[in-house]
Amino acid sequence: MALRVLIVDDHPGFRTSARLLLEADGFDVVGDAEDGLSGLRAARELRPDVVLLDVQLPDMNGFDVAARLADGGDAPHVVLTSSRELSDYGPLVTRSGARGFVAKSELCGAVLASLVG
Amino acid sequence: MGAAAGRAETVEELIARLASAPAAGELREAIASALGDSTLRIAYWLPRQERWVDRLGRPVEVPAASDARCATTRVMCDGELVAALVHEARIAGAQTTLRAAAAAGRALEGERREAELRARLSDAVASRARIVEAEESDRRRLERNLHDGPQQRLVSLALELKLARGKVASDPAGASAVLERAERELKGAIDDLREIARAIHPAVLSDRGLKPALVALTHRAPVQVELDCLVEGRLPAAVESAVYFVVSEALTSAVEHAHASEVSVEVAHRHGKALVQVKHDGVGGADTRIVGLADRVSALGGCVDVDSHPGEGAVVYAEIPCE
């Protein structure tokens, strides 16, 4: 059964490309959101298996969103993403409780599956 | 009568003390004591900046007219306004006050010059701090523009190329559609980078000089701009950059802040100075962008002046020495 993914990112171009790419790689993209608060709401309503979460959102940062997602019961796997590199964020990614990090340009189904598998 | 005579004597003492060149700071005490007003303070006039400062060059307020508690007596030296004595209202216009003010004119002119130097130094320090802050803010904006613009487009491009590769064999028509989108992203990224590079430093300015750069700048403006550039040949690079920056910022201010519909730009090179005038018909009023302009121009020994009244447009003048 395909993993259900929610994409949270403020750049519409990335949301579209990521959706098409992940769907082509066999994921079921159940929704997307453009900021942290609507991402949290969508996660509650859609109950995805994976949240692909941008680090830099307009209303809050991805680390805080990841921490709030981890608080709920039956929390989804969170994979942080950014056009910056993992090394730009130091230990923040591991401390956030996220399952991993993927640079946006490196995103593909196989990388996402390996992080949440 | 006795009290008036006592004060008159102290004015005589004041005159005697002025002759012996009192040390810095003693002048206020001497005048306060001569006038029997311990609240007396002295404000020094900076004519070029049209403002009052204290002995240390810090801005101070001087009451425009006497009120119930305090009044001002202006102090002149060689026909020029030098300072103001701010004192209790009860001694306003008194003979002793006027005599003390007249006697202290020369000495206060000396203190005024010192205050002016201190004010200039303090203005220079503040200006330098604003320049550093503006540079920092420019770097942050550049990083954000690169991140939000071309970087996002290139990320999308990378994902779309990946998607197209997956479709080439199984769905050539789908791959072609994705490649078309990728091409649009790439063109968008090139446009974004061109805009960002031009904002850092316009290549046409360094390659071809001020006039072609200003023609291109005003041509791109979203409002009608009349340009009259009387500069032939090249000026020092720093001056050309500063003139371009003045016109560019004043244009942006006219459009974004003042909502102008017509702007005229005049640039000339006369008597060893680059002269800039940007006039618009917008709403006028203060814009912090112009403070940044003044800092950058003053770092080259020049000056910026703004003549603006709310609702009546504005004119920005800049003068930059070319040597």
Observed structural traits:
heterodimer, A: 117 residues, alpha/beta, Rossmann fold, five-stranded parallel beta sheet, 5 strands, B: 323 residues, alpha+beta, Beta-Lactamase, Single alpha-helices involved in coiled-coils or other helix-helix interfaces, Heat Shock Protein 90, 3 domains, five-stranded mixed beta sheet, four-stranded antiparallel beta sheet, 8 helices, disordered N terminus
Short description:
The complex is a heterodimer of chains A (117) and B (323). Chain A has 117 residues and is of the alpha/beta class.
Write the layout of secondary structure elements.
The complex is a heterodimer of chains A (117) and B (323).
Chain A: E1 4-8, H1 12-24, E2 28-33, H2 36-46, E3 50-54, H3 62-71, E4 77-82, H4 92-95, E5 100-103, H5 109-116
Parallel strand pairs in A: 1-2, 1-3, 3-4, 4-5
Helix pairs in contact in A: 2-3
Chain B: H1 2-19, H2 26-35, E1 41-46, E2 51-53, E3 70-77, E4 80-88, H3 95-167, H4 172-200, H5 203-208, H6 210-220, E5 224-229, H7 237-257, E6 262-270, E7 273-280, H8 288-298, E8 303-308, E9 314-321
